[in-house]
Amino acid sequence: MSGKYQKAIESGVVIIRERQLRQMIGELKPDRGNVCLAEGHKMKWGVSPEWGPDEEELVNLASYEAQFPLHQTGEGEEEERPASVASSASGKSARARKKEKAAGKALQGGDGRGWAAVALTRLDKTAEAAKLAAGPDGQTPCGYQTLRYVAHACAKVGAVEAAYHLSRLQMKCGRTKYITAGSRVFQSTLESSALYLQSTAEQMPKLLAGHGARVSQEIESMLEIKNDILALTPNRRSRMLTEAFNQLIRWYGRARLVPQAIRACEIMNELGVPRNDMTLHFLSRGCAQQYRCLKKAGRYTQAPQDMPGHRPEVLFIGRTNSGKSSMINALFSSLTKFAPASKTRAFTRKLHFYEVNKERAGLPHFMLVDSPGLGCADIPNAAKITREFPNMIFEYLRNRNALKHIFHLVDARNHKLLPADKQLLHLVAKAQRRSVRYTIVITKIDVCKRKVANSTAQRIREELAPYCDVDIMFASARALRGVDHLWSKIWQSVTETPRGRRHRDIGRKELERLNKEGPNALKAPNLSELLEIPDYQRPQDFDEEGFEEARCECNLAGSWVVAHGAYF
C-alpha cells in the first residue's frame, strides 16, 4: 500500500482509482430490461446481487476528482482496461470489441462517474450519488443506466423530485439504435413513481393519497414526449412500460385514487402500450376493494331497500348467454366465479344484488345488479321458468330510483338485435327513465373477427339511429378486453352521490393539504381532539410500599366483615 493511500485512510478519506473502482463493482450487472416486475402481486425491485465495498472503502468524491481527473475516451483512443479483461478480449473480433466498447460508454457515460455513483448508491449515500450522476452543475449527466439506477434509489428514500430530475436528464443522453431518449425518460419516471408510492405506503400511509396526486401530475406532464414512445415497436413498448404502468395502477388503487388509475389506463391506450391481465387485475382491485352478494330476489318486492342518493345501482341486461354474469366476474377480477355463471341457458333466474365498497371509506358505495336473460332457453319447462322474467325486469326499471346506468349486453356473433334484445329495449323505453344512462356492450369479441364485431355495432347503430344516438362499446369477459372502459363508465355514474363527490376530490384536497402543511401533515388530529373530549388518563402504577399498604387495608376490611356478619 502506497504512503499516499495510507495517509488518506488515516485522515478518514479513501481514494480509489477509476480502474480499481471498476474492478471492485465488476460483478454488478445492471438490468437492461424492466426494473419493476410483478410476481405474485409482489414487486421485485433491484438489479444485482449483494456485493461488497465496506464502509471503510467509502469514496470521497472531491478527492477522487482532484487526484484522478475524469478520463474521457476519445474516438481514436483505447479505453484503459484491467489486464484480465484485456486478455479475455484479445480473442474477440473487432466488431465484438467495438460493440462492447459502445455498450460500456452507454452504461458509464464515458467516465468513471457512473461507477462511482452506483457504488455510492450501494453504500446508501443516495444524495452524494445523485449529485455525482447529475454533474457539478446538475445538467451534465453520466450514462442513462446510471441515472435510472440512482433515480430508483432516490425514489425509495422519498426524494421524488430528485428522481424526476435524474429521469429528465436522460433526454440529454441521446438515443440508441432502437430506443428513443424520451421513452427512457418516461420509463424511469414511471418506475420511480411506483417506487416512491411504495415507500410512502410503508412509511407514511396517511399521506399516500396526496403523494399519489403529485405523481399523477408528473405523469400528465410526460405526455409532451409521447411521440418518442410512439416511435417504438409495440413489443418494446410492452417490455419497457407495461409492468411499470401496472405497479403505478396498483398503488393508485391502494391510495384509493381510482380516477387516476383509470386515467393511467387511458394513457396506456393513448401511447399504444399493451396491457396484460395484471393491468386490469390491479384496476379492478382498486375499484372494488370489498364486495358481497347482498340478496337474490325472485320478485321485485323482495329486492333490498332502494337508497337513491346514497347507494347508486348499475344494471346488466341482455339475452340468455350474452355474458352478464361473466362480465361481473371480470369486473371483480375474482379467482373464483363470484357471480354464478354457466353455459346452460337461463342459469340466472333472479335479480342478484352485489354490494360494493360499503365499508371502504374514501370510495363510493354502489351496487351491481345481475338480471335474468330473455330469449330462447333450451331447458325443460323453459316457458314456465322464464314467464315472469320480463315483468320482473320492468318493475325494477320503472320503480328503482337508485338506478343510474343500464348496460345492455349483445353477443357480437348475432350480427344484429334479436327479438329478445328488442323486447328489452321496449321495456327500457316503457319505463321512461330519461335520467338513466344506457350503453350497449358488444360482448364475446375474442371469439369472432374484428370485422364481425364492427359490422354488428354498425347495424345496431343504423337500426337505432331514428330513435336515439346510442352509446356502443366492445368488451370480452374471457380476454378482459374493455374492462377498463367499463369501469370508467361505471365510475362516472356512481360518483354522483355526496360520498362519490368526496372521493373524486380526495386527491386534490390531500395534495393541497400536503403542500400547505408540509412536514406537519403527518400530525393529524386524533378522535378525542376532533370531538373535544379529554384524553383518557391511565392510573399510576402502585409502588411496592403503596401496594403493601393497600393489601393491609383490604385484609382489615375483610376481617371486619367476617366479625360483624355483613354480606354484600
Characteristics:
single chain; 568 residues; alpha/beta; Rossmann fold; seven-stranded mixed beta sheet; two-stranded antiparallel ribbon; 24 helices
Would you kindly provide a written description of the structure presented here, covering whatever features stand out?
Helix content is 50%, strand content 9%. It contains 24 helices and nine strands. Helix 8 runs antiparallel to helix 9 and helix 13 packs antiparallel against helix 14. The chain is elongated. The chain starts with a helix and ends with a helix.
Give the helix/strand layout:
Layout: H1 3-10, H2 18-24, E1 37-39, E2 42-44, H3 61-67, H4 83-89, H5 94-108, H6 113-122, H7 126-134, H8 144-156, H9 160-169, H10 181-203, H11 208-221, H12 226-230, H13 234-254, H14 258-271, H15 277-287, E3 291-297, E4 313-318, H16 324-332, E5 351-356, E6 366-370, H17 382-386, H18 389-399, E7 403-411, H19 419-431, E8 437-443, H20 450-464, E9 471-474, H21 483-494, H22 498-517, H23 527-530, H24 544-564
Parallel strand pairs: 4-6, 4-7, 7-8, 8-9
Antiparallel strand pairs: 1-2, 3-5, 5-6
Helix pairs in contact: 6-7, 6-8, 7-8, 8-9, 8-10, 9-10, 10-11, 10-13, 11-22, 13-14, 13-15, 14-15, 14-21, 18-19
